[in-house]
């Protein structure tokens, strides 16, 4: 079946079968490999994307369900070669670790900060609860979210170059 959707601001049309997962469409057909497959059960958050302004585990979404959807992957967050403030914050705090889970955490952070611009540590933990990092602890990730909130506030006040 033919579906159409917008991904990272670009309208696309694809032919998919009824069992194709959104994750496979994104990675294999569109070659957007920043979205990772971890557990394949929607438990780890490595395949997180933002679809219609909601965080989804793309391994649990069938591709045909994306018909008419607006999707953002990690590739859609930066502006060409300019990193998004959230990406900058993850790098500056050393929250990237092995990097496998990082795209999912960054998209979950974006969604959290879109809803709660200055979250408490408890709100951060809840906001990122769908994502698992197997490398180490979560303190650097929490620090990255706090720094992201600061950076985005600076951008909005015009203290930094405009961003998304």
pLDDT averaged residue by residue: 94
Percentage beta strand: 5-15%
How many domain units? 2
General shape = globular
User: Approximately how much helix is present in the residues?
Assistant: 25-40%
CATH architecture of the largest domain: Orthogonal Bundle
CATH topology of the largest domain: DNA polymerase, domain 1
The run of helices and strands is EEHEEEHHHH
Count of alpha and pi helical runs: 5
Radius of gyration: 16 Å
Say how many strands there are: 5
Low-confidence stretches: none
* Derived structural class: alpha+beta
Q: Assign the CATH class of the largest domain.
A: Mainly Alpha
Main beta-sheet annotation: 5 strands, mixed
Domain 2Fe-2S ferredoxin-type: 1-77
Keywords: 2Fe-2S, Iron, Iron-sulfur, Metal-binding, Oxidoreductase
Protein name: (2Fe-2S)-binding protein
Organism: Petrotoga olearia DSM 13574
Short recap of the structure:
The protein is 34% helix and 14% strand.
Describe this structure in words.
The protein is an alpha+beta fold. It folds into two domains: about 1-75, Ubiquitin-like (UB roll); about 85-160, [2Fe-2S]-binding domain (DNA polymerase, domain 1), CATH 1.10.150. Helix content is about 35%, strand content about 15%. The protein contains five helices and five strands; from the N terminus they run ββαβββαααα. It has helices at about 20-30, 85-90, 100-115, 120-125, 140-155, and strands at about 1-5, 10-15, 50, 55, 70. A five-stranded mixed β-sheet has the order 2-1-5-3-4, covered by helices on one side. A hairpin with a 2-residue loop joins strand 1 (about 1-5) and strand 2 (about 10-15). The longest helix is centred in the last third of the chain and has 18 residues, at about 140-155. The chain is globular. It starts with a strand and ends in an 8-residue tail after the last helix. The model has no long low-confidence stretch (mean pLDDT about 95). One of its GO terms (molecular function) is metal ion binding. Keywords: 2Fe-2S, Iron, Iron-sulfur, Metal-binding, Oxidoreductase. This is (2Fe-2S)-binding protein.
């Amino acid at each position: 079946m033919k579906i159409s959707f917008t991904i990272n601001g670009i309208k696309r049309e694809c032919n998919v079968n009824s069992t194709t997962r959104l994750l496979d469409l994104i990675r294999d057909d569109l070659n957007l490999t920043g979205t990772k497959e971890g557990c394949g059960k929607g438990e780890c958050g490595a395949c997180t994307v933002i679809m219609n302004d909601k965080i989804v585990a793309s391994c649990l979404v069938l591709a045909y369900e994306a018909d008419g959807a607006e999707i953002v992957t990690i590739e859609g967050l930066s502006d060409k070669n300019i990193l998004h403030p959230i990406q900058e914050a993850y790098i500056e705090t050393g929250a990237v670790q092995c990097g496998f889970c990082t795209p999912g955490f960054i998209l979950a952070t974006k969604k959290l900060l879109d809803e709660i611009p200055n979250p408490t540590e408890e709100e951060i933990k809840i906001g990122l609860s769908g994502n698992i990092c197997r490398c180490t602890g979560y303190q650097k990730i929490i620090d990255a979210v706090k720094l992201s909130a600061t950076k985005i506030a600076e951008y909005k006040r015009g203290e930094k170059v405009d961003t998304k």
